């Protein structure tokens, strides 16, 4: 069961891939992850599991597809794709088992294998207006599903059940292709409430994103983070819920603190800016004695497209030179997602989704993500 | 805040001793895994998978003795491991290579087993351990993961029951009812409800259930089930299965083996007691447990899942 993305969109991606391959001196590709195959060819299957590992994998080489293919660690897969590969030159590979790589080397000894990540990153941008419009639509549908969920939030529901209610609303909004487990996670209000924030996490703000069986209680602060694929492009929405009647002034101050950090980053976004610049914008005026305002070990900014998280990454634990080399480009779509925490009050993590335009960032959200939401609030 | 983990954490490290036993048998000193089902099996942890192109680098590192190291954004999914064994995502490749060496400093690392990594991931392992021999760990992983403990079997039964209930609800009352029935379990495939078929796969407590009801060959499915006997070679089974029948392992996710179009992958394995398999014919599937007494259905029978 193979489905195809709209030809215009696929052609735009393929043109960018051709450019990237030319710049990197790459002569062909062999992909075994469903994301990369879909990016390069527009072909996908609803039967490919989200991890894309075993059940019904899809593989491709230079435009030839095999579905369902052998798993990516079975060397016989190479025999099936060999005729599509050039005899010599360089090919980009996303993921393969060792035996596959050995088999490839045996039957194509003049072929050099390089990692596909640089090529795929280069080809991800600049996105066309059509691609960004799809992403905006996906985001707005995700927002619609979130808003429809809010009146159903109540005490004693488990986080997991709430996630299910959200998914039901998402289906009603035309979204079905969930790409990551929906986060409805009660955030700690004190560091002492977060037994897991130990070791490397000890100094950082306590945060959690694994939806579990915890039951919601009055006055809980709940982080929401979810996304779907629409026509191959990912949405990513982060908002905050509060289960009390009205947020206390300290909670409103927390939301304001988040907004200040996020706005500083959004203002710094412009073509040519580096990921390092965006990190510095987030930290501008932030107390050096406090943890950085984003969750460890994640980032304050990441790109989004056909992948839910793609470069540039600002705030990740990259070498400074690498972060400086990651540049913002016109036609990228970025997520700006600080996390602020005050002991005794709790945490606030929402997400702006922005399109990078010639003059700077344009916020794509239709929903105000800077505020608290809850069943008792307007 | 009282954080109640899911049921899965009780058996978090069930898989590790089996895996380490297999590693010793196969002369593997350490495993470096990128696959999420294998990683969850070895480390017993839960993490949200968000990948960038070209990943994964190894995210679970398993020495043949001692605790595994897991790389994660979700320390709350790894509370059963000591804090020295839970690490944030390492973004710098140089730092990652250094970390790998320090995590395995307590053992001689002559042979490293890997699953399917990116070329950059493989290079990273080679850079970190230039004198080590890298070997494919697919068969070792499959041998360790295929037999299930009683506890794992119970989780798989629950998952199987839930996804089949969801299909019944969907066929009776529509797609929303189907999803409602999942109670928020993470769908491993987008749920599908058509006029004459339905499909639901979801991960419950860390174990997958996969149900498919629709058109298929009822007789071929029944014949295939009867052929899955403990000790039988999967390679042989693959060639003997009725045309159009596929078989896929189930556990922490979809797991080896995969039998399709006359071939078994990986090659060289036999049916093991307590392995759980999804047996498929076109749009219909059943889930079975292989046992010494013969195959045992965990799901509804071919008569029920094959729809006219």
Quick synopsis:
Chain A has ten helices and 21 strands. Chain A has 378 residues and is an alpha+beta fold. In chain A, a hairpin with a 6-residue loop joins β14 and β15.
What can you tell me about this protein's structure?
The complex is a heterodimer of chains A (378) and B (308). With 378 residues, chain A is of the alpha+beta class. Chain A has helices at residues 7-24, 34-41, 76-81, 98-107, 117-123, 129-149, 159-172, 249-268, 275-283, 320-325, and strands at 3-4, 28-31, 43-44, 59-61, 64-66, 88-93, 110-115, 177-178, 183-186, 221-226, 228-230, 233-234, 237-242, 301-303, 310-314, 333-336, 340-342, 346-348, 352-357, 360-363, 372-373. Chain A folds into 2 domains: 3-123, Creatinase/prolidase N-terminal domain (Creatine Amidinohydrolase, Chain A, domain 1, 3-Layer(aba) Sandwich); 129-373, Creatinase/methionine aminopeptidase superfamily (Creatine Amidinohydrolase), CATH 3.90.230.10. Chain A is 31% helix and 21% strand. Chain A has a 5-stranded mixed beta sheet. Chain A has a 5-stranded antiparallel beta sheet with strand order 15-14-16-19-20. A 4-stranded mixed beta sheet of chain A has the order 9-10-13-21. In chain A, strand 19 and strand 20 (360-363) form a beta hairpin. The longest helix of chain A is centred in the middle third of the chain and has 21 residues, at 129-149. The mean pLDDT of chain A is 94. Chain B has 308 residues and is of the alpha+beta class. Chain B has 2 domains: 7-145, Creatine Amidinohydrolase, Chain A, domain 1; 150-305, Creatinase/methionine aminopeptidase superfamily (Creatine Amidinohydrolase, Alpha-Beta Complex). Chain B contains 10 helices and 16 strands. In chain B, helix 3 packs across helix 4 (119-128) and helix 6 (150-173) runs antiparallel to helix 7. Chain B is globular. At the A-B interface, helix 4, strand 7, helix 5, helix 7 and strand 8 of A face strand 4, helix 4, strand 6, helix 7 and strand 7 of B.
């Amino acid at each position: 069961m193979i489905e195809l993305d709209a030809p215009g969109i696929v052609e735009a991606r393929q043109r960018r891939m051709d450019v990237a391959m030319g710049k990197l001196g790459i002569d062909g590709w062999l992909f075994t992850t469903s994301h990369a195959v879909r990016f390069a060819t527009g072909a996908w299957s609803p039967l490919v599991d989200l991890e894309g590992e075993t059940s019904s994998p899809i593989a491709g080489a230079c435009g030839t597809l095999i579905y369902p293919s052998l798993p990516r660690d079975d060397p016989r897969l190479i025999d099936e794709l060999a005729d599509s590969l050039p005899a010599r030159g360089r090919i980009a590979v996303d993921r393969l088992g060792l035996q596959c790589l050995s088999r490839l080397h045996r039957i194509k000894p003049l072929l050099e294998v390089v990692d596909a990540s640089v090529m795929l990153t280069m080809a991800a941008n600049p996105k066309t207006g059509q691609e960004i419009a799809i992403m905006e639509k996906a985001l707005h549908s995700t927002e619609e599903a979130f808003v429809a969920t809010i009146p159903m939030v109540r005490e004693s529901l488990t986080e997991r059940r709430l996630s299910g209610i959200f998914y039901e609303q998402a289906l009603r909004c035309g979204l079905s292709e969930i790409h990551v487990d929906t986060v409805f996670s009660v955030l700690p209000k004190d560091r002492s409430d977060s037994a897991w924030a130990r070791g490397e996490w000890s100094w950082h703000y306590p945060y959690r994103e694994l939806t579990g069986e915890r039951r919601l209680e009055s006055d809980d602060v709940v982080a929401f983070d979810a996304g779907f694929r629409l026509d191959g492009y990912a949405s990513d929405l982060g908002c905050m819920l509060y289960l009390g009647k009205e947020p206390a002034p300290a909670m409103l101050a927390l939301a304001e603190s988040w907004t200040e950090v996020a706005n500083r980053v959004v203002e710094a976004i412009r073509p040519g800016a580096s990921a390092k610049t965006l990190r510095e914008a987030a930290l501008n005026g932030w107390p050096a004695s406090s943890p950085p305002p984003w969750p460890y070990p994640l980032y304050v900014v990441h790109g989004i497209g056909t992948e839910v998280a793609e470069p540039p990454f600002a705030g990740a634990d990259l070498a400074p030179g690498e972060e400086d080399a990651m540049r913002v480009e016109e036609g990228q779509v970025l997520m700006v997602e600080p996390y602020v925490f005050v002991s005794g009050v709790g945490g606030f993590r929402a997400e702006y989704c922005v399109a990078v335009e010639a003059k700077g960032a344009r916020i794509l959200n239709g929903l105000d993500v800077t505020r608290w939401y809850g069943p008792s609030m307007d | 805040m009282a954080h109640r983990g899911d049921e899965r954490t009780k058996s978090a490290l069930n898989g590790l001793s089996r895996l380490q036993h297999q590693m010793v048998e196969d002369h593997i000193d350490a495993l470096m895994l990128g696959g999420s089902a294998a990683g969850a099996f070895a480390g017993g942890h839960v993490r949200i998978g968000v990948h960038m192109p070209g990943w994964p680098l190894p995210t679970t590192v398993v020495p043949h003795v001692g605790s595994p190291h897991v790389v994660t954004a979700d320390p709350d999914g790894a509370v059963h491991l000591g804090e020295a064994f839970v690490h944030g995502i390492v973004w710098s490749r140089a730092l990652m290579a250094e970390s790998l060496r320090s995590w395995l400093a307590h053992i001689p690392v002559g042979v490293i087993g890997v699953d399917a990594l990116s070329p950059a991931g493989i290079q990273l392992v080679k850079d970190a351990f230039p004198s080590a021999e890298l070997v494919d760990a697919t068969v070792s992983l499959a041998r360790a993961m295929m037999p299930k403990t009683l506890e794992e079997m119970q989780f798989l039964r629950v998952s199987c029951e839930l996804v089949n209930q969801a299909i019944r609800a969907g066929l009776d009352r529509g797609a929303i009812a189907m999803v409602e029935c999942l109670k928020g379990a993470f769908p491993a495939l987008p749920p599908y409800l058509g006029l004459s078929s339905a499909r639901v796969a979801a991960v419950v407590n860390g174990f997958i259930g996969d149900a498919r009801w629709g058109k298929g060959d009822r007789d071929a499915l029944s014949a295939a089930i009867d052929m899955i006997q403990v000790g039988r070679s999967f390679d042989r089974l693959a060639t003997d299965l009725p045309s159009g029948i596929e078989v896929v392992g189930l556990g922490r996710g979809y797991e080896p083996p995969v039998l399709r179009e006359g071939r078994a992958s990986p090659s060289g394995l036999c049916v093991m007691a307590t392995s759980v398999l999804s047996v498929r014919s076109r749009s219909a599937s059943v889930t079975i447990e292989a046992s010494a007494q013969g195959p045992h259905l965990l799901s509804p029978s071919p008569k029920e899942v094959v729809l006219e």
